[in-house]
Amino acid sequence: MQAKIIAIVARDRNNIIGANNDLPWRLSSDLKRFKALTMGKPMIMGRKTWDSIGRPLPGREIIVLTRDTLFHAEGAHLAATPAQALATAQRLAKMMQTDEIIIAGGGDIFRAFLDYTDRIEITEVALDTDGDARFPDLDLSQWEKIHHELPARGPKDDADFHYVTLERRRKL
User: Which residues of 133-153 are buried (b: 16+ CB within 10 A; e: fewer)?
Assistant: First the structure.
């Protein structure tokens, strides 16, 4: 059985997801949610996202997608193509006994895997920020909103936010 592909993203009102290889906000509540959604699962991310995190994430297997054949990521798996990253992630998902693979960004990685993505977990951040990384525009006719949640803003959160879960509509 193939594991489902789940993209997890926090974006502002303008689809901005990053600025200068960092998040343009601090949302402690969302980081806790990210950890809960990704624990025990393989995660695919780009080199810049890996660099911004700076280390392996405990309880997860990281696959770094990069064209740089000399790149080394201590504690992570490397992939040169999206197909290679997916094959590695499927193998790891089976080994980890999970039915989900996480796409964790950045913008180019979300774009590369969007056609394969089954579900998107979005944190909609109530900000208009400046940034250089964007989440791709979605054709909403291909997606169905299956969940919406308005959590309380925590004391370590820079802005209000809400969670939206989109699931790909299946062709009949």
Answer: bbbbeeeeeebeeeeeeeeee
- Beta bridge mates, 77: 63
pTM across the whole model: 0.95
Mention every residue, 6+ apart, whose C-beta is less than 8 A from residue 147. Answer: 163, 164, 165
Domains along the sequence of the chain with CATH: 4-168 (3.40.430.10)
Contacts of 159 (CB under 8 A, 6+ apart): 25, 27, 125, 126, 127, 153
* Residues 6 or more apart in contact with residue 6 via CB below 8 angstroms: 37, 100, 101, 102, 103, 117, 118, 119, 120, 121
Residues 29-52 have pLDDT tens digits of: 999 999 999 999 999 999 999 999
Measured CA to CA, the distance from residue 140 to residue 137 in angstroms comes to 9
Q: Which residues of the chain are under the pLDDT cut of 70?
A: 172
Task: In whole angstroms, give the CA distance from residue 35 to residue 7.
Answer: 13
